[in-house]
Amino acid sequence: MQIQVNDSLMNVNVLFSEADIRERIKQLSEQINKDYGTENTLIILIVLHGALLFASDLVRNLGMPTEIETVRIKSYEGTSSTGNITLVTPLPKDLTDKQILVIEDIVDTGRSIDFLLKELRKTNPKSIKVCSLLDKPEAHEFPVKADYVGFEIAKHFVIGYGLDLDGKYRNLPYVADLKKA
Ligand SMILES: O=P(O)(O)OC[C@H]1O[C@H](OP(=O)(O)OP(=O)(O)O)[C@H](O)[C@@H]1O
Ligand SMILES: Nc1nc2[nH]cnc2c(=O)[nH]1
């Protein structure tokens, strides 16, 4: 598939197929189930919009009681970060003493998750961990480390499986990068 990005025609190059993602989600959920056990409730905090597809596949494999919550933060326009993070929706209420697992689609510069973790810590939860489908270690500008990572990737802009380009292509069932056609 080819798509137009600004003035360039780009090839959509699959990095992780549907099967790759399914298999990795199985492994991640096994690890999360092992770490948390089956007794205590886990708050699943889905960071909208990007993490929607990943989270909905991941939670189906979790064995503990969960409460699903969402938060929307925004930083990217096109393929670059604006540098300004905003909390578009409020944090869920009553997070004090709760176990929270934040679900992200990608940690890139780390600015978004750094911002969100600071906001969450103000609510005095029992614990906060982060599970991100993708991580770009070479792009980090903030000292963040996700506790669970699906795949580490290079410093390339990716789309699909929740990740957008100006709001589009989130529905692609795979993760792809863009190469000049
Ligand atoms: O580590 P960073 O450099 O901050 O980049 C990661 C963030 O960027 C994307 O969000 P975006 O603001 O594009 O919103 P979206 O999830 O609605 O696409 C993504 O979902 C992460 O939240
Ligand atoms: N779609 C998309 N959003 C991002 N937000 C931060 N990095 C990325 C990326 O590589 N792709």
UniProtKB/TrEMBL annotation:
- The identity of this protein, by name, is Hypoxanthine phosphoribosyltransferase
Against InterPro entries, the record matches this protein to: HGPRT, Hxn_phspho_trans, PRTase-like, PRTase_dom
User: Which keywords does this Swiss-Prot/TrEMBL entry list?
Assistant: Cytoplasm, Glycosyltransferase, Magnesium, Metal-binding, Nucleotide-binding, Purine salvage, Transferase
> Which protein family is named in the record?
Belongs to the purine/pyrimidine phosphoribosyltransferase family.
Subcellular localization, per the record? Cytoplasm
One Gene Ontology term of the biological-process aspect is: purine ribonucleoside salvage
Q: Which organism is it from?
A: Fluviispira multicolorata
Listed EC numbers: 2.4.2.8
Which EC class, in a word? Answer: transferase
Entry-linked SUPFAM superfamilies:
PRTase-like
What is one cellular component GO term in this UniProt entry? cytosol
- The UniProt record lists the Phosphoribosyltransferase domain at 23-164
Name any cofactors this protein relies on. Mg(2+)
What are the recorded GO MF terms, alphabetically?
hypoxanthine phosphoribosyltransferase activity; magnesium ion binding; nucleotide binding
Q: Which reaction does it catalyse?
A: GMP + diphosphate = guanine + 5-phospho-alpha-D-ribose 1-diphosphate; IMP + diphosphate = hypoxanthine + 5-phospho-alpha-D-ribose 1-diphosphate
